[in-house]
Amino acid sequence: MARSSPGLLNIMKYTISILVAASLVYAQQAQYQQCGGINYSGDTTCVSGSVCTKLNDYYSQCLPGTPSGPSAPTPSTLPRLGGVNTAGYDFSVATDGSFNGTGVPPPPSQFTHFANEGANLFRIPFAWQLMTPQVGGSINETWFSSFYDPTVQAALASSPDTRVIIDLHNYARWNGAIIAQGGPTNDQFASVWTQLAQKYGSNERVIFGIMNEPHDVPNIATWVDSVQHVVNAVRAAGSKNFLLLPGSSWSSAQAFPTEAGPLLVKVTDPLGDNSKLLFDVHKYLDSDNSGTHPDCTTDNVQVFTDLVTFLKANGNRQAILSETGGGNTASCETLLANQLAFVKNSFPTLLGFTVWAAGAFDTTYVLTQTPFANGTDQALWTAAVKPNLP
């Protein structure tokens, strides 16, 4: 065989290198295409300006951004979380923020019961009017020390790894009027959290859920300003606790990426980064997403896929699903199990969940997760919740 000249060899090498480079470029996945996951066999590199981002064990996607470096957001240090709402102090709070009850203490024994099964997160809702009988006023120390705080302490004592969400359950309202939009001022809203920061600011296992399910808020930007006001006030009080920031539309996980989310991601933390600012989302599985029917019609996997995509694309942020659930029915056993498995596999973007609800609910409530008197659990807990606890 004749030997090629050195010049021809160089031309061939140069041509081959161009072809190789071109093939690598064309093999890269476009923005928003899949780039990884269990059973995925395609290319795992993304075009310039995108990063292959794991959304769950089965799906990684090319999302806008640059490879992580020294300036990349630092995820929170919370572990994977899972547990239950222990309701009672919120009983009779109406969706207009009015309240005419006295509250019912959740049984302390439930915390040990659920912790022994693997739960490490309890959400303990309370009526604003029980905590501070006058809007913007002082905490009712008698009620706090006799009822609410002993419940919180019982939850914290259930295991050394337990976290507790203390949840202001008033729908962004006081007696029908919306915070900073005809109702309490931002200072009055912040006052209750400043006082709670003085109570729990030294215990980072306590998470502040600053408001349950804002809804029908005329001006979302004004609501986000109210959230920022509370963040600033809590930090000024010396608290370094994790804070759960709620959106609008009943804290809807589905609405979050297009409604309040783009504004809430701009809320800043005086601590210097946003790793302790978590987003508070809810999503039920019944036909109208109300959490009032025993049967489930969806597993919400697409909703949470979209939410994870949004959180990843907006600074690698994190959220907790603090309300979800269904009836003790076959449809919910299957669909809630699918949803919670997705949430579990989406850690750390989705840090975990608390299902609704146990506590002072009796065993006939449509979404009850209260254990039976003989110590056995509800069917939904056994089939869908317990397998997806941390």
UniProtKB/TrEMBL annotation:
UniProt superkingdom: Eukaryota
Gene3D superfamilies per the UniProt record, alphabetical: Glycosidases (3.20.20.80)
Broad class of enzyme this protein falls into: hydrolase
Keywords: Carbohydrate metabolism, Cellulose degradation, Glycosidase, Hydrolase, Polysaccharide degradation, Signal
Ranges for domain CBM1: 27-63
Catalytic activity: Endohydrolysis of (1->4)-beta-D-glucosidic linkages in cellulose, lichenin and cereal beta-D-glucans
Matching Pfam families: CBM_1 (PF00734), Cellulase (PF00150)
One example of a Gene Ontology biological process annotation: cellulose catabolic process
Protein EC: 3.2.1.4
GO cellular component: extracellular region
InterPro entries recorded: CBD, CBD_sf, GH, Glyco_hydro_5, Glyco_hydro_5_CS
The UniProt record lists the keyword Hydrolase: yes
UniProt signal peptide: 1-27
GO molecular function: cellulase activity; cellulose binding
Transmembrane segment boundaries: none
Alphabetized SUPFAM superfamilies for the sequence: (Trans)glycosidases, Cellulose-binding domain
Family stated for the protein in its record: Belongs to the glycosyl hydrolase 5 (cellulase A) family.
Protein name per its UniProtKB record: cellulase
